[in-house]
Description:
CATH topology of the largest domain: Rossmann fold
Number of strands: 19
Helix content: 10-25%
CATH superfamily of the largest domain: P-loop containing nucleotide triphosphate hydrolases
Structural class: alpha/beta
Number of helices: 8
Order of helices and strands: EHEEHEEHHHEHEHEEHEEEEEEEEEE
Number of domains: 3
Distance between the termini: 72 Å
Amino acid sequence: MKVIETKNLGKKYIISHQGISEYQTLRETITDKAKKIVKKRSYVIPKREEFWALKNVSFNVEQGERIGIIGRNGAGKSTILKLLSRITEPSEGQIKIKGKIASLLEVGTGFHPELTGRENIFLNGAILGMSRIDIKKKFDEIVAFAEIEKFLDTPVKRYSSGMYVRLAFSIAAHLEPDILLIDEVLAVGDAQFQKKSLGKMEEVSQQQERTILFVSHNMQSINKLCKRCIWLENGSIKEDGLSETVTFNYLNLGQNKESEVNWLSEASAPGDKEYIYIKSIKIKNSNNTSTSVIFAEEDFFIEIEYVVLKTLNISQIGICLLTSEGELIFQSGDTDLSGLEIQERKPGNYISRCKIPGFLLNQGYYNISLFGHIPGIKMIINTDSILSFEIVQRYNLGGYGKQPGFLRPKLEWEIEKI
């Protein structure tokens, strides 16, 4: 049975470019009036442009399906979930939905900040159409899963982002919606809770035939949870099929094969624009030359240039190194060996540079993703594979060719006859 049907779905936004807006704040109006006294100023009507976040998107979802949605930042992933959640209306096309929907699109969605955790459980249950009796039956399970027993009667405005997410996910998963929509918000939680959440989604889908649409930058999570995956590119469906096939193609066909990526404007760059944005990421060899081909025996560097817009008291910027199949090899942040996180990054330009030693990686292709976070509070950078590179072997190191495994470290051995 089809529970979601979309046909020629489109969402259009109007973007205003440089010029003086027709609508100004009181502060802007006073400032402009003051400037007029000193200097004559010409007003320009802003140029308006249509931007299609989604265009001609059609897909159907069967009851009990678990579908992953992947794509670069700005590809339209979150827009689809907002349309399905009826947070916003489509500009064109049709959506048909059968059943109750629960959405977890951003931290604190659907919560009233002045109400306690206990009160918000009942509020969210009522929004989902549950009776008070049914909510009470699930109440203890929700609290135990969210691990917020001590803070149950505390207003949620005092919760950390992690606590928000744990409670919001627990409510959405336990109050039996027919369709569960989840955005990358789970990335805010710790690794243990992410694993626990994936297990819960798998359980409710298999045992209770609930439908799940899951947006994530983590290809391993997509492959583990979802049999089917939709790859969005520039607001349209690039590929729709088996998760392992689609994620492999996404990581390898859709990746950047250059040695560096530069973002020319703040608007197009990755990052939470309240705090930070990325200017460039580069792969450099031991000669400080940008390259996408690295010799196995040589050190190389990942260089991230970024702009801090607002003082970050505690933060970390880092990389995830993945195989061509999207398996995580390791994650490393720029404060890993500092003892304590950097206590303060003031506004300005920065470069974080990571050295990867020679004789570490095996021959093959690898992908780099970026992350940045305020520990335990907020993700401020979250991108999937931005760059790829190849490790090649320059010399014959023993005649055995490529060895099994991701790593091929050069270790010291001794041979002793006894």
